[in-house]
């Protein structure tokens, strides 16, 4: 029985490794699996699938959900200064990593700069604080959370957002050189923000752009630019976002494909992104959903991939379109 199970696993592994699928651009591509990793400019390998922790707060809840997530195979944890859960995550990992025979290097932690800190004099200290909160010597990835100050009045920084972004990036480059942070990237950057960052060229390219991305919102040109520049586009809000997921999950087009492929609507939305080599960081609150969101090694046929690309476009989360 044991041998048979091992053989079965081996055959599935070989099968997945040889499968190819057609990307939305029509190119023949190797199937991306949940175990695959993206090579960052530093040569670090970053899992394509991670666990989101927005609105997950409190030591006990964090511990419970990270326990489920590590058991289900997640090795990337996405947090942010804004989520106020870095310390809880750090404490939980100290107990949970040994439980799963893992060490710090087996997991990948992303955190992000509080948006109101953009361009502030204490950005470096703020990175140090995140590292300290998380309880290890470094974070794997540090992101600029938003390309501009979220709101402006007479008391806010008189410099424009473009200058604030550039100054912040230079501090983040210093944090990489000092070993505080292994990789740096951005979030909510549109094409013009990303092009500006690449043109400014401070010696380290962004490894990741984390962005709201799902069939109902996938701004033109960004995925192509990211792929061309070797940047991972990592989707957030793949299920429609915390508090709003039901709208996307109930779309008849999504439900129809889910029924056809005998998967859940959530799996269709997540696989849709992964199949385009887009990273995903779904957040879920039950063991069953956490497992389900990792069970994505199937193929969505090309016609269904295309059908999911044709929704009317509207973002649910932050709007960076008006940030110059
Ligand atoms: N960079 C940014 O500006 C930014 C912005 C937003 C989010 N993020 C990051 O991205 C992560 C993901 O985004 P998100 O949390 O906003 O939204 P999301 O992952 O799109 O959706 C989460 C919602 O979907 C529900 N859900 C999860 N799995 C499900 C399943 N299998 N079936 C049905 N419903 C399911 C969850 O409910 P339950 O929790 O009740 O299970 C929750 O309400 C965040 O946690 C955060 O780490 C980044």
Automatic annotation (TrEMBL):
Pfam families: Aldo_ket_red
Ligand binding (substrate): 145
Family membership: Belongs to the aldo/keto reductase family.
Segments traversing the membrane: 6-25
Keyword hit for Coiled coil: no
Active site: residue positions: 83 (proton donor)
GO MF terms held by the record: oxidoreductase activity, acting on the CH-OH group of donors, NAD or NADP as acceptor
InterPro entries named among the record's database cross-references: AKR (IPR020471), Aldo/ket_reductase_CS (IPR018170), NAD(P)_OxRdtase_dom_sf (IPR036812), NADP_OxRdtase_dom (IPR023210)
Site (Lowers pKa of active site Tyr) location in chain: 112
Domain spans labelled NADP-dependent oxidoreductase: 50-307
Lineage: superkingdom: Eukaryota
Name of the molecule in the record: NADP-dependent oxidoreductase domain-containing protein
Alphabetical UniProt keywords: Membrane, NADP, Oxidoreductase, Transmembrane, Transmembrane helix
